[in-house]
Design brief:
mainly alpha; 5 helices; 83% helix; globular
Length: 121
């Protein structure tokens, strides 16, 4: 169990550092380019990791923890939302898929707005 926490922690640290590098390298005043890029790249990478894991029974769970949960989790949480949404679609759980997406986006935005508004000025 400790090994899993260390793998995820190390991956998360690397993912967070990569996100900072993208933020530094892709500044844009008119469009949140850096965030957009990390979300799309993270979704692509987590898709590759889960694709390899699904097709290869030899793919070690430690690599999945390090790469998907750690690096992609530190790089972007959108990648997890994307992968979980695809899993729901693959399971033909369409109503849960739409509910999950709608609630994640709407409540995520509402929670961010609430958090920003309750901070004293």
């Amino acid at each position: 169990m400790i090994k899993n926490f260390l793998l995820v922690g190390l991956g998360g640290m690397l993912g967070s550092m990569l996100r900072l590098a993208v933020n530094i390298g892709f500044k844009s005043a008119s469009f949140p380019l850096a965030t957009f890029l990390v979300n799309i790249i993270g979704s692509f990478v987590i898709g590759i990791v889960f694709g390899i894991a699904a097709r290869n029974s030899q793919f070690d769970v430690n690599w999945r923890l390090f790469l998907a949960t750690g690096i992609c989790g530190g790089f972007t949480t959108f990648s997890s939302l994307s992968a979980e949404s695809i899993f729901l679609l693959q399971q033909q759980r369409y109503s849960i898929f739409f509910l999950y997406l709608l609630l994640s986006i709407v409540l995520g935005l509402a929670a961010t707005w609430l958090g920003m508004t309750i901070v004293p000025k």
